[in-house]
Amino acid sequence: MAKNRTTRREFLRGGAAVAAGGAIASCASVGANTGASAGRGNPVLAFAHLTDIHVKPEGKAPNGMRACLRHAQSHPWKPEFILQGGDCIMSALGATEERTRIQFDLWTEILSEELRLPIHHCIGNHDCWGWQRSKAGTTGDEPLYGKKWVLGVHGMRSPWYSFSRAGWKFIVLDSVQERGDGGYKPMLDDAQFEWLEGELESGRDEHVLILSHVPILGVGPLFFYDDIVENYQFKVAGALMHQDTKRITGLLYRHKNVRLCLSGHVHLRDRVEYNGIPYVCNGAASGSWWHGTYKETPPGYGIVRLYADGTFENEYVTYDWE
After folding, report:
1. Which of 22, 203, 293, 315 shows the smallest number of beta carbons within 10 Å?
2. Distance between CA atoms of 217 and 240, rounded to whole angstroms?
3. What does the alpha-carbon distance between residue 242 and residue 188 come to, in Å, rounded to a whole number?
């Protein structure tokens, strides 16, 4: 089948025109999280939430990414755009410059071939180049070090930003900060937190949806590892959930128009509602890093439908990735 291609410039601006939607050959819904009220009419907006794609040249990853994009863009709800939730490549954290370039080039190639919808990106921890300096052979002074490379690939001027559509304000956060010892801290720095305060103040007349890579709050992080209890204490690794969750949830509590917080990162599905705000984590497009189902969560993506009254539906959709 012939493929319509976009130029690199068009791709970096956020994609091309929407192609005509077709029927999905295999669409298995795995349930919906709703914040819904009866009789609210048709949604004002529908979009696809694809996170943790983790593309790499080996194995089934390239064809899996292609299958996921085709499936999501052909969904009967006809999503208007894609929210890409981070960890677009397998990992740049400890990868050499050559290995990182191979992964990002593959990502760009597949998007340029398959993308038919506008796309908005979020940065994940595995998208940041060279933070594991001893493995990556980096010093920290490289022009593309850290987030600079992925920002250029995605055509992003800032790792956090906002936009508005159909009475909804979308706030995209940057969850990951360099820790200095090869790791990362899932949190907002002070500058970003101050920016978030301003965005929430200026968006009081809109419904607010917040996208982060790492969950602000969730139960998925509790089940990420097989051994979750040690010495009568439940374990939640510090890298699996925002360490500043109390600070962020306290801020969101003061803004009753925050309707939904979306995330990925842990490759598991959950929904937590805390003080009236739903925190929804969708599973990974790559599942168990392109080895099938991770624990009880198969590879998939979210279709999110937003309504004028501030309610939403989040449907997790699986696809034939092989």
Report:
1. 22
2. 10
3. 8
Pairing of strands 184-186, 233-234: unpaired
- Token pair of 47, please? 């979009």
Q: Tens place of pLDDT for every residue, the chain, 322 residues?
A: 443 333 444 444 443 333 333 333 344 555 566 665 555 789 999 999 999 999 999 999 999 999 999 999 999 999 999 999 999 999 999 999 999 999 999 999 999 999 999 999 999 999 999 999 999 999 999 999 999 999 999 999 999 999 999 999 999 999 999 998 778 999 999 999 999 999 999 999 999 999 999 999 999 999 998 888 888 888 888 899 999 999 999 999 999 999 999 999 999 999 999 999 999 999 999 999 999 999 999 999 999 999 999 999 999 999 988 7
Q: Could you write out the DSSP letters of every residue in 24-87?
A: -S--EEEEEEEE--TT--S-SEEEEEE----B-SSTTHHHHHHHHHHHHHT-TT--S-EEE-S-
